[in-house]
Design a protein that fits this description.
Layout lengths: L1 H4 L4 H12 L2 H7 L3 H7 L2 H13 L3 H21 L3 H20 L8 H22 L1 H12 L22 H9 L12 H12 L7 H16 L2 H7 L5 H7 L10 H17 L5 H22 L6 H18 L7 H33 L15 H11 L5 H13 L4 E5 L19 H5 L5 H4 L14 H11 L18 H5 L2 E7 L7 H7 L3 E5 L3 E5 L7 E4 L1 E4 L4 H7 L8 E4 L16 E8 L2 E8 L3 E5 L7 E5 L2 E3 L2 E3 L3 E6 L2 E9 L2 H46 L3
């Protein structure tokens, strides 16, 4: 729709659509980096909204177009809040600037009209996008403020490092190479040839300059080219976010080559009558050949047979147009151009997709690193199904499910020996398809089985929890993870997290130091050929009452708990004014039961004869709200990362709920915004029908007046 609106022919628009949808985008949706493809899926829609708004002749139509563009922006925020949405917004803003100040849809616009359209459509689309997306944006910003990467500065993110800028060779590989590692951003020779050709076919009022410039700027940003990068670094926070992983700017790249190459297909009819047409047709192949040779020589990567094949086939199609005799009648010339365009559309779909299909049917065992796009690797698929299965929990899963159904709430951790000197240094996600990782219920397996664990992969964790895990292990780990390491298997802090079971990879020798350490204070309760499960009798329940409450100064109390100097089952450290406490005078033990639980709510019943602090084993956040017998009370940050609620003597019902004010506000904003957007769309549709009826009435009246008599 976008390509047709800005003047592409049907075949040119179809080429752009196929090149985008069935090229790197398809790879990205099936193999890697889905946040990138989820975001780029809405780039054409955002561009379309801006374009429709600029072309609108009435305010209702313009406002409806703003809603369309805003909806796309809201989904970009949902897909990739951070580096992705920032780059995408810059791209959409650049399109708005280009289509108002440089090449507007109406060349007769005055300077004032151009700036008016820019400063109405641009902010309107952004504002509507943020309003519609507020329910997702505001809570995520609030969570970010409490996270290990507050503000996106990477100041509290161990293991974070600035990514390397691409070299010229690597940047060329990113959009030229057809091997698996680059398929998420690379385009094949057909698109490359047409991208270069488009530059020579540009004309006044063409969109080619925009897509050509962006096609160069994105690789330049990945390379850190000084002048270009310095310009973007003027934007707040952009430098911090970009240099963390410069190459990810390529994740929004595929849309640009698709549009640029489609523009070349659109201009093919002009080529046969241009001066120097043979040279123009052959220059792209020459430049693509030079780039391929440079990558082979400097980047140690031969472009390969299909790089050359696709480039040559595209050039042949272009030469077929160039070779049209000037004397040939117009209809015949048009047929040849259509034939060449159809051939290019077919080629851009078949290569690589047709090639992948043939490879799948002809090869039972594809070469290492070669992607099978149109089939499943049976071995990989089996492990994926094992990981996702809810009906076949495996030995460890079945055992823990039975305990879950008969015991109070508990958590477990999977232990595969990560960071131990005798274990290969690979993260659990990198090992996700290993049978051992599936067996110990690592990598979200627990979620599918409705079991609770404390580990996982999340680049944005609560800072207090990250610090808690560092204290537990006695060392830091990469900020993406919160795993129990070999140095933390017998930490007292594990018990405070309600971790009753540890599922150990049976491949870890039982006489290895970490295995000995975790086994010596736990009981072996289950084993099979894949796992051993140990139970900790000292693990705390989901909540307990303490009568010794002390002020927590920074992390001093946390490390006293970690070192075993203080017993966390008896003492609580609070990051607030210490509440009044007194132990039961009769020496009776407090009774705490979990009456109801969900991921964001909990109901507890407490009965005791003292004044104490109820410690709840949930990660602290300012967004937790609590009531005691229906009356709101403060939730105290306890033991650095847990929750604390003062509870007086007697029997009480405590209700906890995770209730971010940002979510409530966001839901209201998005709800009202959605209602307003639907109203705008409805009004625009109604106004369009009214105008159409009036137009029909005027035409009928004119026809009636022209009739004789």
């Amino acid at each position: 729709a976008l390509a047709r609106l800005i003047g592409y022919s049907v075949l040119a628009a179809l080429f752009s659509a196929v090149a985008f949808e069935f090229g790197p985008f398809l790879f990205g949706q099936t193999d890697c980096c889905t946040v990138g493809t989820k975001l780029t899926a809405f780039l054409p829609m955002a561009f379309l909204g801006v374009e429709l708004a600029l072309r609108a002749k009435t305010w209702p139509t313009r406002m409806a177009a703003w809603v369309l563009g805003g909806l796309a922006i809201s989904q970009m925020f949902a897909a990739w809040l951070g580096q992705g949405v920032i780059n995408a917004l810059i791209l959409v803003a650049a399109w708005a600037v280009f289509r108002t100040l440089v090449t507007p849809p109406d060349a007769t616009w005055t300077v004032r009209e151009r700036f008016t359209n820019l400063f109405t459509t641009g902010p309107a689309v952004l504002a509507i996008g943020m309003i519609l997306g507020a329910a997702g944006i505001l809570p995520r910003l609030a969570a970010n403020a409490e996270s290990n990467n507050a503000g996106g500065t990477y100041e509290n993110t161990p293991g974070a490092a600035d990514g390397s800028f691409h070299t010229l060779t690597y940047a060329l590989k990113a959009f030229m190479a057809h091997v698996q590692a680059y398929r998420g951003s690379s385009v094949w020779g057909i698109v490359l040839i047409l991208m270069v050709l488009a530059v020579f076919l540009s004309r006044r009022q063409s969109v080619i300059p925009f897509f050509a410039v962006v096609a160069v700027v994105i690789p330049a940003l990945a390379m850190g080219v000084p002048v270009i990068s310095d310009f973007f670094y003027l934007l707040p926070l952009y430098e911090n976010i970009h240099i963390h992983s410069p190459g990810r700017v390529f994740w929004i790249y595929p849309f640009i080559p698709a549009m640029l190459a489609g523009a070349a297909v659109n201009e093919l009819p002009r080529l046969s009558s241009m001066h120097g047409k043979w040279l123009i047709a052959l220059i792209p192949l020459g430049l693509v050949a030079l780039a391929g040779e440079y990558v082979r020589r400097e980047g140690n990567l031969a472009p390969g047979l299909w790089y050359w094949t696709t480039a040559i086939l595209a050039t042949v199609a272009v030469l077929a147009v160039v070779a049209i005799p000037p004397s040939l009648e117009r209809e015949s010339r048009q047929r040849i151009v259509r034939g060449a365009s159809v051939a290019l559309v077919a080629l851009v779909f078949l290569l690589p997709n047709g090639l992948d299909t043939i490879r799948y049917f002809r090869q039972d065992d594809p070469p290492a690193g070669e992607l099978v796009m149109w089939g499943n690797d049976d071995w990989m698929q089996a492990h994926i199904e094992d990981s996702l299965s809810q009906d076949d929990p495996g030995g460890a899963g079945e055992f823990l499910q039975q305990r879950r159904d008969t015991q109070p709430p508990f958590r477990f951790v999977a232990y595969g020996g990560i960071y131990h000197p005798d274990t290969i240094l690979r993260s659990y996600p990198d090992r996700r398809l290993e049978p051992a990782m599936v067996a110990i219920l690592q990598n979200a397996r627990a979620m599918r089985l409705q079991l609770e664990t404390t580990q996982g992969y999340n680049p944005l964790q609560q800072l207090v929890y990250q610090e808690y895990i560092h204290a537990l292990n006695g060392q830091e780990q990469n900020y993406h993870f919160a795993n129990v390491l070999n140095t933390g298997v017998n930490s007292p802090l594990l018990d405070l997290l309600n971790i009753r079971y540890i599922v150990v990879d049976r491949n870890i020798p039982e006489n290895r130091d970490d295995h000995i350490a975790l086994a010596e204070i736990r009981t072996d309760v289950y084993r099979d050929e894949d796992v051993i499960i140990y139970e900790s009798e000292s693990a705390r329940s989901r909540a307990w009452v303490v009568y010794d409450v002390r002020a927590g100064q920074d992390q001093v109390g946390l490390y006293q708990l970690a070192n075993g100097d203080v017993d966390g089952s008896e003492v609580g450290f609070v990051q607030a004014e210490v509440p009044d406490v007194s132990p039961p005078s009769d020496g009776t033990e407090p009774q705490v039961t979990v009456a109801d639980w969900s991921p964001d709510t909990m109901t507890l019943n407490v009965a005791h004869s003292g004044d104490g602090l109820l410690v709840v084993s949930e990660v602290f956040s300012e967004n937790w709200k609590a009531t005691v017998d229906g009356e709101e009370v403060d939730v105290l940050q306890t033991n650095h990362a847990l929750l604390g609620i003062p509870v007086g003597q007697g029997e009480h019902t405590i209700q906890l709920r995770y209730d971010p004010d940002s979510l409530v506000l966001g839901l209201w904003v998005s709800g009202l915004g959605a209602a307003g957007s639907l109203s705008v769309l409805g009004y625009a549709g109604w106004a369009g029908l009214v105008r159409r009826r009036r137009t029909v009435a005027v035409v009928l009246e004119a026809d009636h007046d022209r009739q004789p008599g």
